[in-house]
Amino acid sequence: MNELKILAVDTATEACSAALLVGDKVFSRWEEAPRDHTRKILPMVQAVLEDAGISLDQLDAIAFGRGPGSFTGVRIGISVAQGLAFGAGVPLIGISTLAAMAQGVHRLEGATRVLSAIDARMNEVYFGRYELQAECMQLVGEEVVSEPSLLVAELTADATLTGSWSAVGTGFETYGETLANLAEDLVRSQAVRFPAALDMLPLARAAWLAGEAVAVEQATPVYLRDKVTWKKLPGRE
Fold first, then answer.
1. Does the keyword field hold Heme (predicted)?
2. Separation between Cα atoms, residue 208 and residue 157, nearest integer Å
3. How far, in Å, CA of 64 to CA of 7, rounded?
4. How many CB atoms neighbour CB 141 within 10 A?
5. Distance of alpha carbon 213 from alpha carbon 207, whole angstroms
6. Three-class SS string for 126-149?
7. Which is nearest to 96 in space by CA: 119, 69, 66, 125?
8. Mean pLDDT along residues 175-195
9. Rounded CA separation 106/135 (Å)
10. Confidence band (pLDDT; 50, 70, 90) for 233?
11. Are 197 and 47 in contact (CB under 8 A)?
């Protein structure tokens, strides 16, 4: 049986990354590079392909950070992934940036229950909660965009978040005092701030095995916040 080969790319936040799975081997590049994604992402892709000694047309699929995150960053990521997939003749797999961060906390700190929050500006956060199942972080409920205080009120009303949880993302940096009230036992991750393509690979592999890859033209981003809202912020990513 041929080794599964999946390329992952992500530009949805201030970080830019590419990673490649070849069987049980992983190759990756990651850099925090705000506003420089268009220049850095393709060289990163080329670097991981060269590290593995394979070409684009040998891939089985390409995964991409589908959001939520920066409107511009999400668009760059899906455009790059679509272009590469068209050229390689392979399908696409969209991976949540919030889930990728949760997966990163599991990889680096062994967390099994994670709250991911990205600063969405406008006094809001993108938020999701995840629990480990079969070595992959699975979403519990829905990913949302919400004011931090409203989010806390909703999730604490029925004691949803009992026990210990790991917290990750810029949302906890910006609105940490408010979001600290989500759970009595909340441990802030010191190892992860942004998603990494490396952590999208286990999720992409599981999606591939579950038959969830889609044709290039069917790949869609996830903004959570609609485009009309973004128009209220001239120059805002």
1. no
2. 37
3. 8
4. 11
5. 7
6. EEEEEEEECCEEEEEEEEEEECHH
7. 66
8. 93
9. 9
10. very low
11. no
**Burial status of residue 132 (CB atoms within 10 A of its CB: 0-12, 13-18, 19 or more):** middle
- Would you report the helix, strand and coil content of the chain in percent, each value rounded to 5? 40, 30, 30
Residue 148 and residue 51: Cα distance in Å, rounded? 42
Answer yes or no: is pLDDT of 227 > 60: no
Only one residue has tokens 């992952």, namely 8
Cβ neighbours around 48 below 10 Å, total:
24
Amino acid identity for residue 170 in this structure: T
Q: What is the pLDDT of residues 71-101, one digit of tens each?
A: 999 999 999 999 999 999 999 999 999 999 9
Q: Which of 43, 76, 81 is nearest to 64 (CA)?
A: 81
Asked whether the beta carbons of 109 and 191 are under 8 A apart, the reply is yes
Q: Is 215 exposed, middle or buried (0-12, 13-18, 19+ CB in 10 A)?
A: exposed
Do residues 22 and 3 lie in contact, with contact meaning Cβ atoms separated by under 8 Å?
A: yes
Candidates 170, 173, 160; CA nearest to 131 is 160
How many whole angstroms separate alpha carbon 179 and alpha carbon 171? 8
Q: Evaluate the omega torsion of the peptide bond into residue 202 and state whether it is cis, within 30 degrees of 0.
A: no
Angle at 126 between CA 192 and CA 35, to 5 degrees: 65
pLDDT at 34: 87
CA 87 to each of CA 13, 58, 81, 212: distance values in angstroms, whole numbers, following the listed order: 25, 11, 10, 20
